[in-house]
C-alpha cells in the first residue's frame, strides 16, 4: 500500500471512529480530505454525518471536504445524516455548508425518502421547510416517501406527508399503494390514516390483490378489521381467482371476511 493510500485509509477509518485527533493527523500528513477508502465509497464527511459528529463535520468542511461527494450508490453525506437522524449535522450541512436539499441517490431516493424511513417527523418537517420537495417522487422501486413511511408504520411521518400533498394513491412499480404496504406489514393505525385521506380500499396491485388480500394472507386481524370497516370488498378476486378469505389461513380472519 503506498503512503498516500495508507494515509487516506487512516483518515476514513479515524472518521468512522469519530477520532478527531487522528483525522487531524492524517490530514496534516497529506491525506485527501475527500478520499473514499472503504467498501461503501464513503468519505470522512459521510461518516461524520452518519454519527452526528458535528465537531468532526465542521472540521472537515473547514478543510475543504466536498459536501456533495457521493458514495458508490450515490449517497451524499446529507442522505446518511437524514437516514440516521443526525439532527445537528443535518442543520449544519444545510444552513452552513449549503448542502443540496434536492440531492438524490442512484436509486432516486430523495431526502424525504430517508426521513420517512428514519421515522423522525421533526426532521421531515424541517426538510420540507428548507425546500426539500418530492413528496410524490418515486425511488428506483417505485416507492414514494409515503410508501416508505407506510411500510415502517411511522404515523407522524405519514400525517406530515399527507399534510404536504403526498398522494395516498401513489403506486409502486407493482401497483402497490401505500395502503397495500401498510396492510402487508400490519400497521393498523397507518391504514386508518390512509383511509381517512381517501385511499382506495379496493385498489388492485399487479397480482390483482387488494389491501385486504395483503392483510388476510398475513393473518393481520387489526388491519383486516380496519379495511373492512373502511369499505374494502371481501369478494374481490385477484388474478388467480382468489378472494381475501382464500388467502387467510386462520379461521378468525376468515370470519371477518364474510359479508354480514
Sequence-ordered SSE layout with sheet pairings:
Layout: H1 3-16, H2 20-28, H3 44-50, H4 54-62, H5 77-83, H6 87-95, H7 111-118, H8 121-129, H9 145-152, H10 155-163, H11 178-185, H12 188-196, H13 211-217, H14 221-229, H15 244-247, H16 251-256
Keywords: ANK repeat, Repeat
Protein name: Ankyrin 2,3/unc44, putative
InterPro entries: Ankyrin_rpt (IPR002110), Ankyrin_rpt-contain_sf (IPR036770)
User: How far is the N terminus from the C terminus?
Assistant: 74 Å
How many β-strand stretches? 0
Give the name of the CATH superfamily of one domain: Ankyrin repeat-containing domain
Under the CATH scheme, the architecture of one domain is Alpha Horseshoe
Percent helix among the residues?
A: 40-55%
General form: elongated
Which residue ranges are poorly predicted, with pLDDT under 50 across at least 5 consecutive positions?
Answer: none
Helical/strand content category: mainly alpha
The oligomeric state is single chain
* Averaged pLDDT: 96
Question: CATH top level of one domain?
Answer: Mainly Alpha
Biggest β-sheet strands, sense, barrel: none
Number of helices: 16
Characterize the structure shown.
The relative contact order is 0.07. The protein has 260 residues and is an all-alpha fold. The mean pLDDT is 96. The chain is built from 16 helices and no strands. Helices cover 51% and strands 0% of the residues.
List keywords for this structure.
260 residues, mainly alpha, Serine Threonine Protein Phosphatase 5, Tetratricopeptide repeat, 51% helix, elongated, Ankyrin_rpt, ANK repeat, Ankyrin 2,3/unc44, putative, Ankyrin_rpt-contain_sf, repeat
Amino acid at each position: 500500500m503506498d503512503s498516500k493510500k495508507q494515509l487516506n485509509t487512516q483518515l476514513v477509518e479515524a472518521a468512522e471512529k469519530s477520532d478527531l485527533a487522528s483525522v487531524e493527523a492524517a490530514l496534516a500528513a497529506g491525506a485527501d480530505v475527500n478520499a473514499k477508502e472503504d467498501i461503501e465509497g464513503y468519505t470522512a464527511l459521510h461518516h461524520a454525518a452518519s454519527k452526528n459528529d458535528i465537531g468532526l463535520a465542521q472540521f472537515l468542511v473547514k478543510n475543504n471536504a466536498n459536501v456533495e461527494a457521493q458514495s458508490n450508490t450515490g449517497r451524499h453525506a446529507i442522505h446518511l445524516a437524514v437516514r440516521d437522524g443526525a439532527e445537528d449535522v443535518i442543520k449544519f450541512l444545510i444552513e452552513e455548508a449549503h448542502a443540496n436539499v434536492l440531492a438524490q441517490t442512484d436509486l432516486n431516493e430523495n431526502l424525504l425518502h430517508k426521513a420517512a424511513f428514519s421515522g423522525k417527523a421533526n426532521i421531515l418537517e424541517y426538510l420540507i421547510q428548507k425546500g426539500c420537495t418530492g413528496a410524490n417522487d418515486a425511488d428506483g422501486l417505485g416507492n414514494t416517501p409515503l410508501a416508505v413511511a407506510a411500510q415502517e408504520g411511522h404515523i407522524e411521518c405519514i400525517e406530515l406527508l399527507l399534510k404536504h400533498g403526498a398522494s395516498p394513491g401513489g403506486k409502486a412499480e407493482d401497483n402497490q399503494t401505500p395502503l397495500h404496504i401498510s396492510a402487508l406489514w400490519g400497521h393498523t393505525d397507518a391504514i386508518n390514516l390512509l383511509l381517512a385521506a381517501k385511499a382506495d380500499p379496493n385498489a388492485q396491485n399487479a397480482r390483482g390483490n387488494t389491501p385486504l388480500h395483503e392483510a388476510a394472507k398475513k393473518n393481520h386481524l387489526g388491519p383486516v378489521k380496519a379495511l373492512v370497516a373502511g369499505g374494502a370488498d371481501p369478494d374481490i378476486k385477484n388474478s388467480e381467482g382468489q378472494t381475501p378469505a382464500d388467502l387467510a389461513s386462520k379461521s378468525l380472519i376468515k370470519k371477518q371476511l364474510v359479508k354480514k
